[in-house]
Design brief:
The protein has 270 residues and is α/β, with parallel strands linked by helices. The chain has 11 helices and 7 strands. The structure holds nicotinamide-adenine-dinucleotide.
């Protein structure tokens, strides 16, 4: 498949370094003929790696804190100026929990940190959609994808407050997906990704052990960042123009598997 995104203009958030899921999405979107701008929080910019991606994909960088609606309005204005028209696809690839960073157990969550996590990781999607809708910045039939994790449906104790925050993110995708669908046929979906070795992923205590467990449960093994990017590309393309308000599992079959022979063998008594 070539040029699946030819002529499409996009905004890609969240590329921090080459392990980031967003980084792979940018590479794939470029391969498939899209033009786009990259954006991240100003603090992530200072690390400088995003500049290499911008050069490689021939794209410009517009700093924006996704919790700040003025930054987001500026992002859509500049993106449309640079790309020469309305935006066809948006990747929301933003997640951060201070409670996780500071290793605070779920039952003792700090509420200021909890609120910060909600703002950065869930409300930011609402803000990105709301600002776009007010500015009429996304073209008819456009596609917005946000990344999530299955702890929104089932308990993974190490995921602490991010489990509740992801549940909210998925709910916002459904709720806003209704309104944006009616108004402009804009699709809004979440992709629920396997554990992936990125800065956000490996920052979670116990991630390494869990990564191996998920890999041995999933019939296809864990989905890596590159395959996640491929899936996002299909969702940005016209081939999925009637898919909206869905939480789509991209996890090698993990979410539908009760147990695998591989894991049973580890507990074998005979
Ligand atoms: N890695 C995993 O195991 C995994 C699994 C499922 C879902 N996800 C989700 O994928 C998404 C991307 O994470 P990743 O794993 O690629 O890690 P990552 O650390 O590379 O990306 C997270 C990004 O969020 C950005 N960010 C944080 N605060 C921000 C703000 N205020 N404004 C704008 N950007 C901000 C960071 O700068 C970073 O680029 C997240 O939503 C994450 O929860 C990750």
């Amino acid at each position: 498949m070539h040029n699946l995104l030819k002529g499409k203009r996009g905004i890609i958030t969240g590329a921090l370094d080459q392990n980031s899921i967003a980084w792979k999405v940018a590479e794939k979107a470029h391969e498939q003929g899209a033009t786009f701008v990259l954006t991240n929080a100003p603090i992530a910019m200072r690390m400088g790696e995003i500049k290499n991606l911008a050069e490689k994909t021939n794209s410009e960088i517009i700093p924006a804190d996704a919790t700040n609606v003025d930054d987001l309005a500026n992002l859509y204005t500049k993106a449309q100026e640079i790309l020469g028209g309305k935006i066809d696809f948006v990747l929301h690839s933003i997640g951060m929990s201070v409670n996780i960073r500071k290793n605070i157990p779920y039952t003792e969550s700090n509420y200021d940190y909890f609120m910060k996590g909600i703002d950065v990781s869930a409300l930011s999607l609402h803000k990105m959609l709301s600002v776009a809708m007010k500015m009429d910045a996304i073209s008819e039939g456009g596609s917005v994808v946000a990344l999530t994790y299955m702890a929104a449906q089932r308990t993974y104790p190490f995921y602490t407050d991010m489990a509740d925050i992801k549940a909210m993110l998925e709910s916002i995708a459904r709720s806003f997906g209704y309104h944006y669908g009616v108004e402009k046929k804009v699709r809004v979906n979440t992709v629920s990704q396997s554990p992936t070795k990125t800065t956000a992923g490996t920052g979670i205590k116990g991630f390494g052990d869990f990564y191996s467990y998920a890999d041995s449960i999933s019939p296809l093994g864990n989905a890596d960042a590159e395959s996640c990017a491929d899936y996002c590309i299909t969702l940005f393309s016209d081939l999925t123009r009637m898919v909206t308000m869905q939480n789509l599992f991209h996890d090698g079959g993990y979410s539908s598997t009760g147990v695998s022979f591989d894991v049973m063998d580890k507990f074998a008594t005979e």
